[in-house]
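[audit] Reproducing an earlier prediction to check determinism. Same input, same settings, fresh worker. If the tokens differ from the archived copy the diff job will pick it up downstream; this log only records the rerun itself.
[audit] input (365 residues):
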Amino acid sequence: MDWSTLPGDLVRLVAGYLHDPLDFLRLRAVCRSWRSAVASSPPPPFLPWLLARPAGPAHATASLSFFSLASGAVRSVPAPSSSHRLLGPTRSHLLLSDTTRHLLLLNPLTGARLPLPDSPFPASNPVIQGYLIPAAADDDSPAPVVLYNARKLFFHFDFMAGCEPTTKPVDRDGWTEVLVPDLVAENMYHDGKLFVCDDRGQVTVFDAATLAVVGAVPPPPTPAAPPRRDAFNFKCTAFVPSGHELLCVIRHFANNERGELLEYCRGGLEVYQLEMEIEKEDQPPQPQWVRMRSIGDRMLFIGLFQGFSFSAADFPGFKGDCIYFFKLERDKRSCIYRFSMEDGRTEELSGPWMHACTWFVPSLS
């Protein structure tokens, strides 16, 4: 059979089921007619990859390992050099830093590299994380980058071009400091706003264009009773943008009999949606986290402090109302789990023997 004679509509139909980007690239490389058939339409949505935590001092590595949930394969991608360490992933790119404060955005799928101004943090400071804010599909403006540690948070200066901040943040070689009121535990950009959570769970909301404080959000409610009464417990909140909504997923952790900190899954995961205006009797509207019993068609992929949302309708064979997450079971294995919001069950999925770091969404852009 001459595969090049396969009708273009059928080629595009097959391509729509390829939710691992490497499978899609292989289909596109079969012949010129197949490449032409898929070039007329955007690629299918890709499921997240699970990124392995780099080994070695300060998480520096010469290669990066990924596990594809769609194909079940482990991929290895060369890192820029063994001196680079991972600061944070996002959709399409990884944010890397070397020992001299040089920063780099890397698309591990295409190899595209985007240099950035040097980090505003001292090279001796080991606690630095960051991420790229993905631009909207119809937005040609530069995608801003966020860098932060426990005490300071910076925006890449290009995002501030043409804006007049209402505050006067410090400009350091293209980086603009966000004047956070307290310690930074985690943060998330969503729908034109920056949500910065402190170590007590209180969230300060900044306008992303001016960096002015526009509100505050109380912490999500604390459960009436911890999942285990015989151990120290704490919860971890992961922010998940989903369309125009901001969700947070709460995960519970506890110490076992040997003092090891492990995730406690038996009680399930809790999902809350941020309602920016809640009417209360004799009180002005105020933001509030509202517990969700169902997330509908959505699939959430969450790490410790961040996550991604997808529609199950885009992925034949996958069902919605589920949360995918991972937890460290042994020294070098991270088990992948799926929690069903419908029946409250948690099931283990097949996965690699790797120390997982976070989810990463591959892109051909």
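[audit] rerun output stored. Observation attached for the diff report: The CA atoms of residues 332 and 355 lie 5 Å apart.
[audit] end
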